[in-house]
Every structure is written in structure tokens, then in C-alpha cells.
Amino acid sequence: MDNVIKLQRETDNYKITKYKKEITIDFTYYDKYQNLKTEVKKTNLIFWNHFYINNQYYFFPLFNIDLNESYNLQSDNLTSNFKLYKLLNDGADWKLIDTKQKCHTIISNMLSKNLFFKIRKYETCDREKILYKNRLYTLYYLFDLLEENGNFMITLYGYCDQTIEILYLLTYMFDYIYIFKNSEVYCSNFNSVISKEEIKKLINNKFSIQPKHNLNKLVKYFEKSIKYEYKSLKLQYDYYDDKYTILILEDLIIMYYYLNPYQKNDIYRYIEYYFMKIYYDDNLFLYENKIYKYIVNVINKFNCKNCLELGMGFGLYSFFILANKKTSLTSIDINQNKFYNIGIKLLKKFKFDTRHTLIKSNTNLNNNYDFIFIDFFYNQDINLDYYKKLLSKNGVMLLYKNNRIKLIHN
Questions:
Q1: Same domain, 35 and 121
Q2: Residues 152 and 296 in one domain
Q3: Among residues 215, 233, 251, which one ends one of the domains?
């Protein structure tokens, strides 16, 4: 799933009217998700915490937010008693401040105890309906507290009609807004074309704002997000540990391309956990990913021994090639350092490293490979004819691109 979607206004001209429903979201998976959550609560199941991905843990480094230089805006009730807190110790502590100096970064990711108790028995959209005025008051106070070109972060509980209106309202207050994993919203560069007084007028009225740029893209993003959340919860509920592990692993790998160093330890931890569950007693057991299955089946069917892969990455494909004890593998990868040698570390953990060679160029390759694997995610411009000549008499080449597989048999 794509973790981040970006919105920005395409014009400074806007029109605010009385609320009129114009957004149609497919709530099929939303309803399924809510029903499943109800069942989960009845069973009192405790899911495995080692899989839990804390969105905010990745959110803050992704947008270079220094918590020690940030401030938290909270209120004791829905419409009044707003207070500003200075964050300390990377957000673990905070202290109330009374400052007339504007802040560069304000975060609204926590509710006061009083507000939390008001909403805790409700789910997503109902929570947002209760918090609607509170959200608008928060935006109203930004004009007094946030410096020009400053940044703002807010956590949302759902994406119902009025939530979407607030998201688009934010695009007329900030140059860019980014929605991360469905709930965390980062607003960059406070540069409002809408006034503080106009925000105040909206507080007691449901409204619509136009134009809404990239609305269809946003709706599709939300629909995919809730489908993903449902799939994730269902896999846990049904105890499909293996499927859930690979789902989270793939999610982490996608986030890696945004986050790099902040995530290397987590990625290796999940990769190691996944492979320890499917490979033990020197044998490969249940696994779900179709390309992994295809690699294993092709190697077994054609009795491949001498193998080559272009691009090693995290070593996931390398693992499944070497899971067959008869194989040896040469990986061409000039960027393994960018992956913090996670692939090398993985193969060493399972003692596959004695059958593995890492090289940085395709010079001096032999012409007797039984199996060549090319993932076009890492290899955009490939001379396939060159690599076909490296196949053995009955060798096979496996091409993987955009979730499609092509097999070339010599």
C-alpha cells in the first residue's frame, strides 16, 4: 500500500458554501472492518505486539520533525481551554508554557484525558463528528501560535465527509499537506489564503470548500487504506501468522524508500522473524508470496544449481534461491551498502553465505547459469540478450516486473 499521499492547492481562489454531500466513498471494507473490530473486542484476543507498527514512530523522522523543538496544542474540552505545551525528551514529557512568541512546529496528536474519555467508546467517523468543532478551533488558534512558513501535524481518526472538508481547508492554509498511513497529517509551510475570521465563521456550520484538487485520488487512497486495515486485522484474527508477517514486511520495505536509516533495524528484525518461521530443520515450510513460490518451484522443476540474480536488495529473493541446498548464487549489486548489508546479514544468519557470492559488476561472468532472476524494480535498463547468452543449455530466466512474472526457457 502507498503510505503517503500529497495534496496541494492549485489556486489561491476558493469558495465556501453550505455543506452539500459530493463525496462518495465505498464503505464496504469500512463496515467489514468495524464489524471485525467488534468481534475482536468480544474475544479479548491479544495480538502479537512485535508486529505493531507505530505510525508516529516513522512519521516524525520522515518529515524531519524534531520533537524537542516542537509544541503540542491540546484542549480540556471541545471548544475552549486550549493550552500549549513544550515537548521534552523526544516527546516523552512536556510542560505547559505561556508564550507570546510564535512556534515553528505545532503538533496536535494527543487528546486531553477529558476529551479522550468523551470519544473512547466511539469508532472512527463518530469520533470525528464529536471532534469536528475542536478541529476547527485548533486551526483557528494556529493563526496566533504558528509562525509564518511554520509546520503543523494533526492525527485524524477517520475520513468521513467533514474530515475531508477539513483536509481541503488545510490546503488553503498550508502550501502542502501529506497524509501518512491514513491517519497522520503533516502540513508544511503555513501560508494561508483563508483568514482567521473565516475559520471562526465555519465552526458552527457544516461547510463545503471548492475546488478540491485530486479528490478522486484521495478517495481511492482512503478506500485502499481501509481495505488494507481490514486485511491486516483479518489475518491476525484468523491467526494467519505467516501471511500477516509478510504483509507487514512488505509495508516496511515500502516505507524504507522514504525513511532509510531510521528503519534498518526494524526491517532486519521482521525479515529475520519471517524467515525463522518458514525455514527450520534445514527445510522450507509454508510461505505465501507468489513470486517466492514461483522461484522455488522453477528451481525445483528445472533442477537449477548455478544461479545468478541482478540486484540483491534485502536478500529476500536470494533466500528463496538458496533455500534449495543444491544451489549456489551470484548476486550483482553495487548498492548493497545502501541496504545496510541486510541481505548479507540474512544469508549469514541461515548459513547460506558459503554458497553465495556478491559482486558489483557483470564482467567476468560465466556462461553456464541454470537460473537467472531479474527484478525490474532495481534494474530498469537491462540488455536481456546479454544475459540470455549466459544461460546453460537448459537454463531458465525469470523476469519480475510490476507484479507480473515471465519465464524464459533456453
A1: yes
A2: no
A3: 233
d(CA 339, CA 134): 43
Same domain, 19 and 150: yes
Containing H/E element for 146? strand 146-155
Structural domain span for residue 45: 4-233
Number of domains in the chain: 2
* Lowest mean pLDDT across 154-168, 224-238, 242-256, 300-314: 242-256
Q: How far is CA 166 from CA 223, 281, 354, 386, in A?
A: 18, 55, 57, 55
Residue 217 lies in a domain: yes
Q: State how far the Cα of 307 lies from the Cα of 295, in Å rounded to an integer.
A: 11
* Domain annotation covers residue 254: no
Whether the pLDDT of residue 62 is over 80: the answer is: no
User: Whole-prediction pTM value?
Assistant: 0.69
**Tens-digit pLDDT profile for residues 113-127:** 889 888 888 877 888
pLDDT at 289: 67
Number of other CB atoms surrounding residue 117 within 10 Å = 10
**Angle, CA 285 vertex, CA 284 and CA 290 arms, to 5°:** 90
Residue 253 lies in a domain: no
Q: Encode 346-375: b = buried (16+ Cβ within 10 Å), e = exposed.
A: bbebbebeebbebeeeeeebeeebbbbbbb
DSSP character for 101?
S
Mean pLDDT, all residues of the chain? 84
Q: Which three cell numbers stand for residue 184?
A: 497522520
